[in-house]
Amino acid sequence: xxxxxxxxxxxxxxxxxxxxxxxxxxxxxxxxxxxxxxxxxxxxxxxxxxxxxxxxxxxxxxxxxxxxxxxxxxxxxxxxxxxxxxxxxxxxxxxxxxxxxxxxxxxxxxxxxxxxxxxxxxxxxxxxxxxxxxxxxxxxxxxxxxxxxxxxxxxxxxxxxxxxxxxxxxxxxxxxxxxxxxxxxxxxxxxxxxxxxxxxxxxxxxxxxxxxxxxxxxxxxxxxxxxxxxxxxxxxxxxxxxxxxxxxxxxxxxxxxxxxxxxxxxxxxxxxxxxxxxxxxxxxxxxxxxxxxxxxxxxxxxxxxxxxxxxxxxxxxxxxxxxxxxxxxxxxxxxxxxxxxxxxxxxxxxxxxxxxxxxxxxxxxxxxxxxxxxxxxxxxxxxxxxxxxxxxxxxxxxxxxxxxxxxxxxxxxxxxxxxxxxxxxxxxxxxxxxxxxxxxxxxxxxxx
Length: 448
Ligand code: SF4
Ligand code: SF4
Prior knowledge:
single chain; alpha/beta; 9-stranded mixed β-sheet; 3-stranded mixed β-sheet; 15 helices; 14 strands; 38% helix; globular; disordered N terminus; binds iron/sulfur cluster
């Protein structure tokens, strides 16, 4: 569900939705240790009638419905996997031909493609450049860090192939962003990772993704966890690598997540602001001015991006592709009806309705909103279930960045709507100071 109403387009209410299509499902040519999608092959029972390749009829139905379900100047398609380039270039040539067939006059159609980069070649990059795809390239940092978990099926690292993709993307002027998983290892090397992406990859936009996976994630849907199983914030069993840990050993810990963001933020703010784009930091700047966070994970509501499997099954979110969160199939329901359905709206609003009291009274609720519900599997220190596993790290980062963000906004003439150094906090402080001064002056005068 991604509904934008109010503005008009073409004489009618503007209507927008977003879905992440997985035309090859979870199939992938490599085998990253922490991949949350490979296990879907079993969970969604592909073998029992769900082809791992979206057939022509489903593809055309999807493209037609996706376009017909929106009324906006630009329609953005997102293609993900598994590894979508395994479908071959011809498949994507068919995609752009179908988009041209159904594109209403005056509407721009754009495409995003998420890839591990290992199959990209000159031909692919010429196509991506010609059709102005925005490529999301997965790369975890310098060779040793990247190769630890991003391995091929023989267990060998994929770093060389990904760096070849980086060269090709630059050579053909393909728009791209890097996606870097912050895991137990990369989180310990924040500056090595950041400087590598900045100086070697020359990443036009950096996206960092915290890896958080409970040991039960392959079979158990988020938010179906028993409250009694949730551990309190600070419990040692929440630390990745602890002998009784409830999370996978490759996960980032809450503290390490906060420390990673802080180290990268400090370097970015001192040297690179305005030159290097780090998605979380750009989004935080927006939030501090009072605008909503553009990232779903830190926005008040969620459910703004559906996920669709090769057989046309639609789920509430890419992170909720579990039978409990299936909301329909495009062969039986229209995509926009599913996007606007009560089930999807409930899913979206539940994010703010289920916030713990710790979040409700948090100084940084405006910036965090309890982060992604898929990570809300711990208890607050007071024992309330449903707190985010990364809470301590997020809080540490926001508290650290607060003053610098306010300073930058004020220095550039922008409002500072939130935080401990907001315009309102400053005004209050000045009122208090001037009241104190008046009292001191009054008591001083009364003595003479
Ligand atoms: S569940 Fe998480 S990833 Fe999905 S829309 Fe909500 S915040 Fe975003
Ligand atoms: S920092 Fe923690 S307490 Fe504050 S809103 Fe985020 S998850 Fe909730």
